[in-house]
Amino acid sequence: MTRILTYNVHRCVGTDRRLDVGRVAAVIAAEAPDIVVLQEVDVGRARTGRVDQAHRLAQRLGMASRFNAALKVEEELYGDAILTALPERLIKAAALPGYAPIPQLEPRGALWVAIDVGGGREIQVLNTHLGLVPAEQQLQAASLVGAAWLKSALRRDPLMLIGDFNATSRSVVYRTLASTLRDAHGARRRWRQRIATFPSAMPVLRIDHVFVSPGVRVTAMRVAAGPLARLASDHLPLVVDFELEP
Q1: Residues in the chain with pLDDT < 70?
Q2: Rounded to whole angstroms, how far apart are CA atoms 59 and 183?
Q3: What is the third-level CATH fold of 2-244?
């Protein structure tokens, strides 16, 4: 069994408006994941003390980090990360399409790695954080399911597409992604806990998703909703246990 955790860490600023990388690391460590998928990570930004949050979190968790900067302002970076202590290799890190009518929207990207989960078997993990405007999201989802990403020659199953999609299961964006991969939440009759991750203080929305290809068997899924998690970020971590089918 392998455990993966996805978490929008809100640049490690909690609902109490306090910046605390250590608190976010503690929330993650309590779930003992093998793979950590993060969104809204600051690297070298003045607003968060110029700390490399991806590296700092990886250090505290005894892992290595991969980071993709969706936003670059001179030396300041902001984007998504994947952390693990397992053998891994980078497949691709790149931008997603923006929405031309609103050029001031925050840039978005995706980070794609292959991770050896044991026995020489790899799983590909694709991490992303989509925009807030529906038309923008639809362009980004279409790119993800197209030739640049999921239909690329680089793709090998088993694969997981994970992240903060800023979209519920009733959205066009969700349907686009779910037409290509299976929502890990599909067996929800087995999960006793309601799988809602936002906002962390009183979660009512399921906008953080895990989509899986054939060959991935999800054995458990839950939200880490303890008191510390409710403070550490405006999202709650989503935790998924899985096995690779023979």
Answers
A1: 187-194
A2: 31
A3: Deoxyribonuclease I; Chain A (3.60.10)
